[in-house]
């Protein structure tokens, strides 16, 4: 099963997302800050990264830019999560290399649908 990395500083949100994904058959890795998330992404090369943009230590914006600059994670799909559902946030997410943008509060079905779309796109690109 695909591996999903969740980078979210709010433990309740992180655990809810983790439980949702594990229940749906995914392997889940979790990080509570941006630096830890970046390290886990490079060490484990997950299939998709769910990245909160407001994180301690290193922001989600910084993490996304760093991962896009690294050859090993350059093509890993990244889903930006933010409580700031403004057009400029979505635009910034795309500018720093995120593939999708999901506003909070997160809708479980949207998360699952987004991950499946990204995994399908990745499979098509590698075929």
Report on the architecture of this protein.
By secondary structure, the chain is of the alpha/beta class. The protein has one domain: 3-Layer(aba) Sandwich (Rossmann fold), CATH 3.40.50. The protein is 49% helix and 19% strand. The chain is built from 5 helices and 5 strands; from the N terminus they run E-H-E-H-E-H-E-H-E-H. The protein has a 5-stranded parallel sheet with strand order 2-1-3-4-5, sandwiched between helices. The longest helix is centred in the last third of the chain and has 19 residues, at 108-126. It is globular, with a radius of gyration of 13 Å. The chain starts with a strand and ends with a helix. The mean pLDDT is 94.
Which helices and strands appear, and what pairs or packs with what?
Blueprint: E1 3-7, H1 11-23, E2 27-31, H2 34-44, E3 48-52, H3 60-69, E4 78-82, H4 87-95, E5 100-103, H5 108-126
Helix pairs in contact: 2-3
Q: Helix coverage percent of residues?
A: 40-55%
Give the CATH superfamily. Answer: Response regulator
Radius of gyration: 13 Å
Total tally of structural domains:
1
Number of strands: 5
- Tell me the span between the first and last alpha carbons: 18 Å
Largest sheet features: 5 strands, parallel
Relative strand content: 15-25%
Q: What can be said about this structure in brief?
A:
With 127 residues, this protein is α/β, with parallel strands linked by helices.
Features:
alpha/beta; 127 residues; globular; 5 strands; Rossmann fold
